[in-house]
Amino acid sequence: MFSSGILLQLLGCVLWQNWWPMLTGIMYILVPMPYIFFGAVGGDSGYSLYGSNLESGWIDAGKFLAGFSAVGSIAIPAILAHAQVITTGALIMELAAALVLGATCIVYDYFNSKDD
Amino acid sequence: MLCPGTCYSAEYFISPALIQWWNENARRWGPIVSGVLFGAGWWFWADAIALSPHRVPFDQYLPGIIATLALVMINLIRKDELADIDPFDDASYCRARVWLFLSYVVSFASLVAAVWVMIQHYSSNPDFTPAEKWPGAAGIFQVSFILGSALLFFISRTPGNSSSYDGYGAF
Question: Confidence class of residue B118 from pLDDT cuts 50, 70 and 90?
Fold first, then answer.
């Protein structure tokens, strides 16, 4: 699923001979980083009250940053299409790529939390 | 209960199913949705700046910057300081309330400023085509999204008021 998302993203660039959509790739790299650095998905460290305040504060900040860069991956193609740097078809393909990658994250999250 | 005066439980106004859904999901998805809203706000503004044929002067960036400042201010508060008033304490409850009030003032100021910028510079200006008036509307979208994100982050951060702990939640 992940590779089909990347494929859609690349196709959005290649089919229209316009390499501007690769700027969205920066956002795709940024999105998992808060998860990697703050180690966040659904705290299960065994505290009685949803984690201590300090630790849950960092986890929440990490989720905030992840959401922020996720919307960047939708916003950059939208701005490029609004400025007519890329065509509408490329925009639709970029949005499809973002959707597939987002669905990949959700499915991954779901399967991870099922194992515990 | 340690609730002073008249105090209403949330079940009187909102259906319990909604409250339970909120309790289960707010902590997991709240910060992410709040990050999405914050990003949407700033990207609206970036879109308006990128597409505007005239140079947008710096003082029109200010409503967004002040809204971001309000977001930081409102989320610096520790929720357990707001949970209960303890008459023998060192006034941390009052300090938290005063800071919250100040952050509300700042956030409403940014909203008013965005509306003011839009009315003064964009909608009453007869020379602009409708497409050129986009920075004004985008400023209002930006500020309202950022303030919505601040509020959502604040209420979905730590266990909220509808938990069943009677004031022992700070441990």
Answer: confident
ipTM of the complex in this document = 0.72
- pTM, two decimals, is 0.75
Q: Does A5 touch chain B if contact means CB atoms closer than 8 Å? A: no
A68 and chain B in contact, CB less than 8 A: yes
The C-alpha angle A17, A23, A26, rounded to 5 degrees, equals: 140
**Which ranges of chain B does DSSP label H, i.e. alpha helix?**
16-51, 62-75, 92-117, 134-155
Q: How many domains does chain B have?
A: 1
Residue B168 within a domain: no
Q: Length of chain A, please?
A: 116
Can you give the residue range of the structural domain that contains B127?
28-159
In a domain, B123, yes or no: yes
Give the CA-trace dihedral at A25, A26, A27, A29, to 10 degrees: 90
pLDDT number for residue B38:
92
Task: Judge: A50–B33 Cβ closer than 8 Å, yes or no.
Answer: no
pLDDT, one tens digit per residue, over B23-47 is: 777 777 888 889 999 999 999 998 8
**Chain B residues interacting with chain A (CB cutoff of 8 angstroms):** 27-28, 31-36, 38-40, 43, 46-47, 50-51, 78-80, 153, 157-159, 169, 171
